[in-house]
Amino acid sequence: MTRPKVDLHPTTRPPARHKRPLWAMFARPQVVALAMVLAVNWLLFPGFFSVTWQDGRLFGSLIDVLNRGAPVAILAIGMTAVIATKGVDLSVGAVMAICGAVGAQMVNSGQPAGLAVAVALAVGLLCGLWNGILVTLLQIQPIIATLVLMVAGRGLAQLVTEGSIVTFSDPVLIFIGTGSVLGLPTPVVITLVLLILATLIVRRSALGLLIEAVGVNRSAAHFAGISALSLLLVVYAFSGLCAALAGLIAAGDIRGADANNAGLWLELDAILAVVIGGTSLMGGRFSIPMSVLGAVIIQAMNTGILISGFSPEFNLVVKSGVIILILILQSPLSARLLHRRARRSPKAEDAA
Amino acid sequence: MSQDAVLLRASGITKVFGTHRALDGVDFDLRAGEVHALLGENGAGKSTLIKILTGAYQPDGGTLQVAGQTVTFRDTLQAQGHGIGTVYQEVNLLPNRSVAENLFLGRQPTRWGLVQRAEIDRRARALLATYGLDIDVRADLSDYSVAIQQIIAIARAVELSGKVLVLDEPTASLDHTEVALLFDVVRGLKARGLGVVFITHFLDQVFTLCDRVTVLRNGRKVATESLSGLDATDLVRMMLGKDLSFDHHPSGLASMRHGAGRGVERVAFAGLTRAGSVEPFSLSLHQGEVVGVAGLLGSGRTEVARLMFGIDSADGGSVTVDGEPVTIRNPAQAVAEGFGFCPEDRKADGIFGELSVRENIIIALQAKLGWVRALNREDQIELAGRYAEALDIRAADHDMPVKLLSGGNQQKVILARWLAIDPTFLILDEPTRGIDVGAHAEIVRTINRLREEGLALFVISSELDEVVAYSNRVVVMRDRAMVAELTGEEIAPDLIVRAIAGAGITTPAEVQP
Amino acid sequence: MKLKQKLALGAGLMALSLSSAWAQGLEGKVIGFSQIGSESGWRAAETSVTKAEAEKRGVDLKFADAQQKQENQIKAIRGFIAQGVDAILVAPVVATGWEEVLTEAKEANIPVVLLDRGIEAPQELYLTSVASDQVKEGRVAAEWLVGAVGEATCNVVELQGTVGSSPAINRKQGFEDGIAGHANITISRSQTGDFTRAKGKEVMEGFLKAEGGGAGICAVYAHNDDMAVGAIQAIKDAGLKPGTDIKVVSIDAVPDIFAAMVAGEANATVELTPNMAGPAFDALDAYLNAGTVPEKFIITESKLYTPADDPQGEYDRRKGLGY
After folding, report:
1. Least CB–CB distance from A164: residue in C190, C230, C323
2. CATH number, domain at B66?
3. Which end of chain A has the lower number of beta carbons within 10 A, N or C?
């Protein structure tokens, strides 16, 4: 078989793409939003940026933001891949509760912690696969398919814990939730490692491109010979695995598996983090690091509200106000306005 | 009412979507007491025209007159107010409500704010009796066959509007007797002085039922004529835009067709079939051969291509590539065998609008390699550059989203995508639809060039002069089956048109499994 | 049920039943119980205590779990009426929409006792309502703190329940009432911890940072024990000793807070008893056997527990109740 010799004319390369300057990376609306939220936090509480070394670990509000934001950030990493395929995974909060409960019950019944962690992660993976099967083989819409486990999952978790908070004292599980590695809280380290691994796997392999292709146009992907089925299974299973990790962290944090409250409504925060990160709910282009940034923005806001001293009745109002602001900031409309202003300025014209 | 009075007249109707002119100065008129067929291939502008007539779209140019008065319709409700009603192919009534409720939904007779069920039922029975239907009007709509549902939808539309009825492919899913039942109803309406616009792609039904016909092609009106002086060949000719005197043989091709210079057999399909979609279909394609496919919409031409590429699964048949039997159950397997497919609906099934030109070009090769073996950026740039150059894809930058390119360039991007996998066999479904004239000629030239490179191609087109220009063989499809295979001197527009029109009159019932 | 749990349950029951004395008893009576569900550990404990109380008195208890749905509760009550039970206990999931089904019960001459929560319906539709006084719970917690700090200045941080919920509003109110008139005690920060351990910990972390690493905090008052347990962990993470550096007072008396007391990390808790059924059965006993109409609102005791009250024993007694 010979490659058709279609190059009848001498090949000229298309002009090489201009490299974006480094500062352009920081000119994203999400980075601006984070800077704004942090600045407001600092105004409300001047000690916000102070980080001290205490008991062999870093200690301070900034560290709290990263530590508290870790579960949502981990969920957002999995959720990003799902949303990029034009899906959504509403079950992650419930899967957190299930996996936390499984891990806690196992260590309490005397199983080694390593096994408990492995089983909890495997259960998360299975939950994700279940979602994937509903979405692919049964062709149920993702929002409905994952709603099943969102509702049933919390019940399953309650069955595992028999309705109560299962308190444990296993050092490994507690380390996952509250320990520290090189001075950083373990959840933060887990998030960073997962972020780097996931980004590398997705971008160094063709997984990212194929996921985006399925998300942009499922039918065209099918016509182009992409096997969307296995891709979707992988993506939902990964989301389940991320939820399991987040569930172990949440349980380790309070040294107990709280089936009723662990991960409650966190699926919505994770979706919000992905959206703030700029991945469209319509599928397609995605960025895992930006979703993690979105999770950090949400948590910076939550922490800010906690230390602001406002009455808690304002919490939700403030939060929604800030979110609307961020979404406006990254809307196509404001991008156009910014663009127009940049064009008008003579300096930008010189550069062009 | 005079039987010849014009109920509805559209003059110089133009409709533009973006840069695409869907309708260009189309005239149409409908008389009282006539059934007027509206014919045309995909993209001819039929559905745009009826949407304008029924108020769903507003024209960008031209005027509408109802009974001599100029009107503008803001929406379908206003069109209804002027007496124009529509019944679509998929009945859009409420399946889980009773027949009577469906007939009177939104205008139930009430007394003191209460719906009078008995009164509704009585009126529904009376109404359906005028259509010769005696059924239980309290039963759910879904209890009845599609044909009865169609008649109920017609009854409702006529009740609401009363002068003009537009029937959009009403017979597509009906069997023989149901079609006859529906036709009786339409004839009854005709006798009552209604004007009926009838859209179908079954030519025999046009002759059975209709008085006049208007044919559209590429957004323009070809003709409005009385059916009494026409035969099926005339209609096909008008739809495909072929003059019987037209004859055009590119010199190089003619000798090739006669010569035995066919390459070795690359791909062979034997007895490929799918119930209700494609009758057993056999064809072998050789290296350096273009097989053109001619046939009307609904003839099975696209359906056959989908079976070949594994998009729909075949009920039977076998495929060999270079003499080896292969299994093709999905497009991924087809791609693995070196097949490529440029679909008819480029936007829905072809391009990834948000992705870059480069990604759109390498995506099929990447899918074939699997997700682990990623093409690195340099390879991608090289591949995209090579094929963009070869096919003369005009894009400022290969990192720009492909949706910003023109239709012709998008089509070339999809072609480039398949060339990048080093294909054995390419299927092109209407490769020149909806692209401008310049790109048109380029695509035709490219097809010829690919044949010279040794590919086997299966090209579906309703542009007969194109088919003639690039085909070594022409396969003609009708009623879900291959009805003729033309070679050599037989590849001429007039012969193709005759083959498409066929001799006999068939109804869909006869070809149903 | 495991043997250990059974034993613990028995022990818990003995403690809970000391106060009950009855005339002729409810032996052989059939009583329906429509429970909300099992949304919290306390709810699970209420269910198991109710079942145990019934067993102890020889009551044939018909139990129905409504899974958080009023329609299920109404169905269950209709079922009880159809079976002709002697009385009905209801822990209502919502406050409104009960008139119709309670009227049916009244017409069938079946007394209804509300547990744990009140409803908006005419009082003649039910025999009595057994509930705790949430304002009093907050006041008891405040009174303990007033006694514990004496004249010293004390900045209290408050972990509220879910914003807008009645226990959050009432327990806040009661605590504020209790410290009124003691100018040395002030609430410096107040945020919601949604009644959960995780949020309690997160909010306490924020408080500790905002109050100079905890130096400015004398005590934490949590609207439930779960949030207090979370706060205790946050205090420890900040390098302080809960119970000593920062006093911890909360409400509910769940087993884990007694475990914290044993470790010296919690100072006081106010009991929300899961034994609503005991007083209810007592009232039914008097009514069915002697025709004594009970008071319309029976308030359960809001008992204070401190490390002096045998926390290890309390922990063991409660552990098997399903908390």
Report:
1. C323
2. 3.40.50.300
3. C
The identity of residue A85, as a single letter, is T
Residue with tokens 């699926």: A267
pLDDT tens, position by position, for chain C (323 residues)?
Answer: 444 555 444 444 444 444 444 446 888 999 999 998 877 778 889 999 999 999 999 999 999 998 888 999 999 999 999 999 999 999 998 888 999 999 999 999 999 999 998 888 899 999 999 999 999 999 999 999 999 999 999 999 999 998 888 899 999 999 999 999 999 999 999 999 999 999 999 999 999 998 888 899 999 999 999 999 999 999 999 999 999 999 999 999 999 999 999 999 999 999 999 999 999 999 999 999 988 999 999 999 999 999 999 999 999 999 888 77
E strand or H helix that includes residue B198:
strand B195-199
DSSP secondary-structure letter at B459? E
As for the ipTM of the complex, it is 0.85
Buried b / exposed e over B327-360, threshold 16 CB at 10 Å, is ebebbbbbbebbbbbbbbbbeebbbbbbbbbbbb
CB contact (8 A) between residue C239 and residue A55: yes
Q: Does residue A179 have a pLDDT over 80? A: yes
Domain that holds residue B212: 6-96+140-230
CA distance B163 to B156: 13
Residue A52 domain-assigned (yes or no): no
Global pTM reads 0.77
Which runs of consecutive H residues, i.e. helices, occur in A45-136?
Answer: 61-84, 92-108, 113-136
Residue pair C31/C87 in contact by the 8 Å Cβ criterion = yes
Q: Kindly report the nearest CA distance between residue A178 and chain C, in angstroms.
A: 8
**pLDDT of C14:** 45
3-class SS shares of chain B: helix, strand, coil, % to 5:
40, 25, 35
Closest CA–CA distance from residue C256 to any residue of chain A (Å): 8
Pick the CATH number of C3-132+274-299 from 3.40.50.2300, 2.60.130.10, 3.40.1190.10, 2.50.20.10: 3.40.50.2300
Give CA B158 to chain center in angstroms. 27
Per-domain residue ranges of chain C: 3-132+274-299, 134-271
Do residue A254 and residue C256 have CB atoms under 8 angstroms apart?
no
- Closest in B371, B381, B422 to A210, CB measured: B371
* Cβ distance of A309 and C39 shorter than 8 Å: no
User: Which of B67, B131, B51, B74 has the alpha carbon at shortest distance from B99?
Assistant: B131
Q: Are C186 and C155 in contact (CB under 8 A)?
A: yes
Are B194 and B329 within one domain?
no
Residue A256 C-beta-side C-alpha neighbours within 13 Å: 23
User: Across the interface, do B348 and A3 touch by the CB < 8 Å criterion?
Assistant: no
C-beta separation of B82 from B31 below 8 A: no
* Fold matches, C3-132+274-299 and C134-271: yes
So what's the pLDDT on residue A347? 43
Per-residue tokens: B418: 């398949």
* Residue C236: CA count within 13 A, CB half-sphere: 17
Helices A228-254 + C197-210 axis angle, to 10: 60
| CB neighbour burial string for C29-68, b if at least 16 within 10 angstroms, e if fewer | bebbbbbbbbebbbbbbbbbbbbbbbebbebebbebebee
Q: Classify strands A184-185 and A180-181 as parallel, antiparallel or unpaired.
A: antiparallel
| Rounded Cα–Cα distance for residues B411 and B393 (Å) | 9
Measure in Å the smallest separation between the Cα of C198 and chain A Cα atoms.
6
Q: Are residues B353 and B313 in the same domain?
A: no
Nearest to B221 by CA among B465, B25, B21, B17: B25
Task: State the Cα–Cα distance between residues A37 and A16, nearest whole angstrom.
Answer: 38
What's the whole-number average pLDDT of chain B? 85
Contact B359 A209 (CB under 8 A): yes
If asked whether residues B359 and B320 sit together in one domain, one would say no
